[in-house]
Amino acid sequence: MKNLCRKSRPVDDPYEVWQNNHGWTWHVLKKYQNPDNEAKNPYARWFVAAKSPFTYGSFEYGDTYVSEIKENAVRTDIDIDWTPDDYWAEVEALKAKNP
Q1: Which secondary structure element, helix H or strand E, spans residue 36, and what is its range?
Q2: Direct distance between the N- and C-terminal alpha carbons of the chain, in angstroms, rounded to an integer
Q3: Residue 2: its pLDDT value, please?
């Protein structure tokens, strides 16, 4: 599977937005691996712009472990040009991970 998120994007046009109910927001600006390799790598990371109650309304930029975001937030927005095969592969991977 191809990495559709390999090019960096600006904070106002992220690939995905993840949020939790504690005031945290992550804008995913770049993914370093395709979803298949990311699922196998416990140290997979994304380049993100993160906003929290501790950043006083500003974004802070940096790499964050994918597992940390997925364990603490839900995806609230997505802007990726998925092909049908990519979409169903992602669905099947999520089903396998969360039976």
Answers
A1: helix 35-40
A2: 22
A3: 80
The full length of the chain comes to 99
**Residues 31, 23: Cα–Cα separation, whole Å:** 23
Q: In 3-state terms, what secondary structure has residue 12?
A: coil
Query: What are the per-10-residue average pLDDT scores of the chain (99 residues)?
Result: 88 95 97 93 97 95 97 90 63 71
Q: Which of 83, 69, 64, 91 is nearest to 18 (CA)?
A: 69
| Residue 62: CA count within 13 A, CB half-sphere | 7
Q: 55, 61 in Cβ contact below 8 A?
A: no
Give pTM, 2 decimals: 0.79
Residue 44 CA to residue 4 CA, distance in Å, equals 16
